Amino acid sequence: MDNAINRLTELNHQYVWHPFTQMKDWISEIPLFIERGEGNWLIDTDGKRYLDGVSSLWANIHGHVRPEINQAIVDQLHKISHTTMLGLTNVPATELAKMLVQIAPGRLNKVFYSDNGATSVEIALKMAYQYWQQKDHPIPSKKSFIKLKESYHGDTIGSVSLGGIELFHKVYSPLLFDTYDIPTPFYYHSKYNTEKECSEYSLKILRSTLEKNHDNIAGLFIEPYIQGAAGMIVFPDGYMKGVQALCKEFNILFIVDEVATGFGRTGRMFACDEDHLEPDIMTVAKGITGGYLPLAATLTTDEIYNAFLGEYLDYKTFFHGHTYTGNPLACASAIASLKLFEKDKTIESLKEKIIYLSNCLKPLLEQDYIGDIRQKGMMVGIEIVSDKKSKNSFPAEIRIGHRICMEARNHEVIIRPLGDVIVLMPPLSITIDEIKHLITAVRYSIEQITRRYGQ
């Protein structure tokens, strides 16, 4: 380790607190410092290259250092980097709002900006609550929300209240508001013989919950078609349409969290496009800027928006905002990213890649310690088990997922686990050859580590 890296390591260990990281472990290791990027690759301070197998936390879309996005940011820098949207507006935020509405599913016509996925969910939560309190014919009893178990919607207190991952959320339980919880249709770990039976059970519980409590429920929050942080849990066919139908039948808001699934990840611009779903509120972030700058948006319908209109003394205003709401630099990068979708025919090119990825993944199920492979478009979860029959996990202290991901670095790939689930979510710009490299590295890493720790 040269002097420069030694100095950076000392500084990092002394001053930086990393997210979702046990720092006692971290400070005993030499960090990997990423210095630059090139296309779908990350390059460290030693010049070693790694395929970005998780899109730098599910955000990068078109690859790193895309000239078109870089130039859009530079051009905007020469104009203005930031100005408030409280009492003012700016050009990129205005133009981007129109572009988002044009590609959004259903009747979503209004855009409220923030700067990350959790805040976009927090906004959706407050909008939904306030809507029922002050619409033309208010239903003030509608104050609660439905969530799926194993759900994840962010790390602010409101979004954590809507989350269902005990490992992340249990410690904060005294701070959270109560919700109605329904089971996730997780077929692999269910008792049902078919995906359809699993789906029908979850929808049955949802119906029962709504029949008893719909007068008290403002809305249902859901990650459409796939739960990301829960371990890439893919919902059975027809489940999302069933959820939407029940929300409509019982007059509650259908709120979709497309923070992870939006902007091409499932093979469509938005996951909702698969079944032509029409959410009342939709949240987006991560890939909105191509993964370049922090930006998020909460989109909603005219009906919900109109419930906030009134005279000043009616106090119907949505009293919520962020310093960097509608930041011009971020919005400029988002506009450039959306233009690249058209220029590169990003969505159209995904079909071949998704099929190739699926074909590469299938043989992995022959390995002794791979229990399940779940794929939705370019989103993949590979579940590692100690025994295929029992579907039991390896002992937690082994940290099998972490070890596999660390081994992958030796094969020029950066990936990150969710517990014992190995997540693959590369940039949409990944090539066929790079997909082959990714799967080869992952297969070999799983073989090496499970052979060492398996029985």
Secondary structure layout:
Blueprint: H1 3-15, H2 23-26, E1 34-38, E2 41-44, E3 49-52, H3 55-58, H4 67-77, H5 91-103, E4 108-114, H6 117-134, E5 144-148, H7 157-161, H8 166-169, E6 180-182, H9 195-213, E7 217-222, E8 226-227, E9 233-234, H10 239-249, E10 253-257, E11 281-284, E12 296-301, H11 302-306, H12 328-343, H13 346-361, E13 370-376, E14 379-384, H14 400-409, E15 413-414, E16 416-418, E17 421-424, H15 432-453
Parallel strand pairs: 3-15, 5-6, 5-7, 7-10, 10-11
Antiparallel strand pairs: 1-2, 2-3, 4-12, 8-9, 11-12, 13-14, 14-17, 16-17
Radius of gyration: 22 Å
The number of distinct helices, counting runs of at least 4 residues, comes to 15
Classified by CATH, the class of the largest domain is Alpha Beta
**Shape, per Cα inertia axes:** globular
Beta-strand percent range: 15-25%
Low-confidence sequence ranges? none
Spatial strand order of the main sheet: 4-12-11-10-7-5-6
Look at the structure and give the mean pLDDT.
97
Derived from helix and strand composition plus strand pairing, the structural class reads: alpha/beta
> How many domains in all?
2
Distance between the termini: 36 Å
Describe the largest sheet: 7 strands, mixed
**What is the CATH topology of the largest domain?**
Aspartate Aminotransferase, domain 2
- The CATH superfamily of the largest domain appears as Type I PLP-dependent aspartate aminotransferase-like (Major domain)
Helicity, as a percent range: 25-40%
Number of strands: 17
CATH 2nd-level architecture of the largest domain: 3-Layer(aba) Sandwich
